[in-house]
Amino acid sequence: MGTLKDITTAEEPLTITLNGRERELKLGMRACAEIEKVYGGMDKLIADMKSKPMTAIPSIIYLCLRRGPDIDNSDITEDSILDSMDRSGYNLADLKDIVTELMERAFPTGVAGNPPKAE
């Protein structure tokens, strides 16, 4: 098990460009709690990513943006995510890669011990 120092000095932030601005993404405790409320847990989110990716992927990206009182993401809504991603040139494979990276960073051994998959 890593020490707190190992965890807090992890890799570079994961970013995405939305509405012309680079934004940091993090699947932290707050986002995980919101995912649990909305989806009932990470396993259900992963299932939705496979069956309904155009709904689930913007949702998780939105939840991972909304963190910290000093971060202004007020110009982004869950409904505007797809339009903003289109304007920024992302395709569905890019978005799946971003979400997979978020999950791998948050759960290095996978959800419930299984490797994360966002096929």
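Second entry:
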Amino acid sequence: MVQVGKKLNSIIYVLYGLVDVLLFTASNFDLIHIGLLGILCFATGIVLWTSKPWFTSLAIISGLFTLTVGVTTLYVSVRFVGFSPKFNVLLVYFALIVYTMVAMIQLFYVTKKKEALVS
């Protein structure tokens, strides 16, 4: 069961990296912190897949950064754009909520299963 969780976490981190790099390129390379987070998430996914013993520390750091960026982006978006009945704004808010919730769940999972994932 832990192997499935380890591989699933690896895939999720790679997907986070892909989303962050796509956002970085869509912003005309203005959001440097998103690009760096994308690279960190890619590295975490690869290290997690190869089962290096030090990956849990990298996964926790990456998870904390991902959670922080998700919460901050959601807060700033709502603060400056406000609630709008437009479909595209609601879709962005929904995507940010999902992004943040998955980051939180993943961070709790890696923290809880830290010892089991190393073996």
